[in-house]
Amino acid sequence: MGKKLYITLGSPPVNAVLMAAKAFNIHLDLHELDFSKQENYSEWYLKINPTSTVPALDDEGFIVWDSHSILVYLQEKYGKDTDLYPKDLKEKLKILQFLNFDCGMLFRRMGDCLRPIFYDDQKNFDPKTLERAKSSYIILERILKQDKFVAGAYLSIADISVFATMIAQNAFMPIDEQEFPCLKKWYSHLKSFDFYGAALEGEVALKNGLRIKLEDY
Prior knowledge:
The chain is an alpha+beta fold. The chain is 57% helix and 8% strand.
């Protein structure tokens, strides 16, 4: 049966899983859902993922949804030869802390900016949501002044997850190197890894979709 990943291009959580899979050298069979036709709400997909979101992983009948859970699952089962998710409990908890931080704050604030543009036909970004999204840069700058990577001295799946969110946010709020030098350095460093190539198609799709939405007015 193989490992099937349900996706839509441009989704930051999908990009996170695609980059992790490339880092772990895992082959995934991609199944793209057509959100314009609400395929993610189809009866067959809701049986796979009752939240209707992407990504969702079907690993020979074992289902995992939520990108952060998928990252941990892929690392634990297939990425044992990498150091992206260490075995030490304290180091592991630091990574889980940042996965939750991405899910609970970074991704939510970024999504609050994009969702009205893509789904509510809003003409412009809301200044208040932009301000909240910019605060993510402020927090990450503070964190990256202390460490080379978000969870410490070494690259981890937390970096991949946060990076996927920042790719999307950078599309409409470019990271200012003068204001956020540590964040910009980290972002450029993450782009130098081979796994970034797995997110390029999604990044282009997001930028093109955003451009089309904004040019409609």
